[in-house]
Amino acid sequence: MPAQRSHTTAHPPVTAAQLRRAARRVLLRNWTGASTVPSRGLYPHQWSWDSAFVAIGLRHLSAARAQRELETLMAAQWRDGRVPHIVFNPSVPLGAYFPSPDFWRSSTAGAGAGAPARTETSGIVQPPVHALAAWLVHRADPATSRRRGFLRRLYPKLVAWHRYLTEHRDLGGHGLVSVVHPWEPGMDNSPAWDGPLARVEPADPDSFRRADLAHGAPTDRPTDLDYARYVRLASDYRDHGYRDDDAPHPFAVEDPGVNALLIASEHALAEIAAEIAAEIDSGSAAGRAARDGLRSAPDPDVHRARAARLTAALVARLWDARAGMFLCRDVRAGEPGGRGEPIRERSVAGLVPLVAPGLPEEIAQTLADTLGGAHFGLGDTARLAPSYDLVGHAFDPCRYWRGPAWFNVNWLLERGLREYGHRARADALRAAVLTHAVSSGFAEYVDPRTGAGHGAREFSWTAALTLDLLAADPGGGGDRVPGRAEERVAAPAT
Fold it and tell me: Where in the numbering of this chain does the Mannosylglycerate hydrolase MGH1-like glycoside hydrolase domain appear (predicted)?
């Protein structure tokens, strides 16, 4: 496939019904029969947080298919609770994607950590948005969900997933989750990782062959040096059996986005626990099945308490009042055994905590102000929130996570703005996401100032989250309701 570069075209306005049909076609094309690939070219396997966002959109087309999306992913969960960031499709040739299954060697190298014996996966993880996705999928069709036992089957897996993060990944010792590879927070190439990555010895460039450059312009992708460091981190983790207690983890960062999504998902787990407990109390056949399949009745208060502890740690460790946002913290920087050091780069991950319920009111307001200020420019110099500081030294509107706007992040910010009462701003962001989804051909990411598309087209989470926003009532709260077919979505020239 030739490299895909940004393009500028004019599109006439389309109705919401037309956009809905176009988004649906993308998801149908990318469906494999059990899950959805992010794109048919560059990403031919199942990705963890992609599937969570895809399920959120699929619920508006088929609740059963959305449930299956998450069930397929969770079937590849490791015995230690981790949900791998890639589940490999054995029918895809090894050369189609790197790092491929023969690099990760999960079923052998990861056997001691409980990797599946018959399914090949990666050994690292991605942000824990899955419980939030499961709860939203359930709400789309509670009857089908209860009949299929969706929540009561997924709940123990989600609990184990969160337990892995809180027990195995608190590398700083202060109650927050650390990521151990730049691919884990999902914002692979963020300038926030440049400092911690500089400590990593790059892998020999002759030891691997990048597949991503065949599908995207090299100027849009990570550099060869960064990629060599990614490979080194992943291979060293593999060679330590993916055991967090044994691996040295030279890259260990507390990321506010990852921790905020864990908080949001703990709140979702509380809702799921309450739903299952109600089923058990009802005495129905579903309730008896739920009771028999669980060691004990789920307790929503356990999850609410954990969410509160995580929120307190997030504020104590990562909030920076001078920056007006949360900052990542490099756990390995500074004195051995110390608190680590904040990373003074403004990544959009520091605004993602808007999606977490329960923030102090003044912090939530400051985050909203920062989102519209000079550094992120939303509603002023930026059409969509950029992934990195617009005036930062490393800003690049085209290069992967060093400035481009991503639809999943903007979906989270729209939800967060609505959560904290900024309805007009949420409505404006919703309209902008829909506009640039259609004008970019459901691009992987876009220039935040012009909306020009970059990366893969017909990208699954872009299409899925378009469906979710189309199902939103712009005048209401955060609930999703059937969209209006007559609503028009502007698609200006870019």
Answer: 43-462
